[in-house]
Amino acid sequence: MKKNDWILAGAVLAAALCLFLWQRTGRKEGSLISVSVDGQITDTYSLSSDQTVLIRGADGFCRLTIRDGKASVTEASCPDELCVMQKEISSQGETIACLPNRILITVEKGGESDYDAVAQ
To answer: Is the Cβ–Cβ distance between 73 and 56 less than 8 Å?
Structure first.
């Protein structure tokens, strides 16, 4: 390998490291779980308190479990139970969806927004 090959390899590795660090630090921990049924927000729950909640959807139910600052669906009435197989969520913007029951569970920041206004 020549000198320029080493420089190129170092630049690619440095760029990959920067992207990895940006992705890891860019996620913010959420503090609220927002539950939507049929597109309407029905409830919000704090990630800081451990609890189990039964969510009634359009055609069935999901059991939402919040433990140690993470939320997951532990039981559902849908036939495929894909929502149960999804990983726990805790970072802002992460979502669990149960399509047959039309339930959407999203992690939100909660509290006041960092922005004073929205510009169009």
So the answer is: no
- Taking a C-beta distance cutoff of 8 angstroms, is the pair 95, 108 a contact? no
Q: Residue 50, exposed/middle/buried by CB under 10 A (0-12, 13-18, 19+)?
A: exposed
Q: How many residues does the chain have?
A: 120
Q: Is the pLDDT of residue 113 over 50?
A: no
Q: What is the mean pLDDT of the chain?
A: 86
* Nearest-angstrom CA–CA distance, 102 and 81: 13
Whole-model pTM: value is: 0.68
Q: Give me the mean pLDDT over the 5-32 stretch.
A: 82
User: In angstroms, rounded to a whole number, what is the distance separating the alpha carbons of residues 50 and 35?
Assistant: 16
CA quadruple 95, 98, 104, 107: dihedral, nearest 10: -30
